[in-house]
Amino acid sequence: KELFPIDVLQRFDKYLKTIGVTPKEMTTYRKAAQEGWAPAPTNDVQRKIWDYVHTIPSKPITIKP
Question: Is the full-model pTM beyond 0.90?
Fold first, then answer.
């Protein structure tokens, strides 16, 4: 198993960012649903999270003119 030197990895990282390749990021289904990019729920746990995130608040924030 060969490892690249850190300076080579940094050059790869800089080049890949210029063409739109970014590091993979892990997140929760709740955060993805809040950000709007979560896939449709496929099980009961995801469905409860989806319903909770997309409910209309009972006391919405009002801004006085």
Answer: no
Q: Which residue has the higher pLDDT, 5 or 1?
A: 5
Return left, alpha or beta for 20; rule: phi > 0 is left, psi -120 to 50 is alpha, else beta: left
Q: How far apart are the C-alpha atoms of 6 and 14, rounded to whole Å?
A: 12
pLDDT-derived band at 33, boundaries 50, 70, 90: very high
CB 47 within 8 A of CB 29: no
Written as six digits, the tokens of 34 are 């809040």
d(CA 50, CA 40): 8
Q: How far, in Å, CA of 47 to CA of 40, rounded?
A: 8
pLDDT, averaged across the chain: 86
Identify the DSSP state of 54.
T
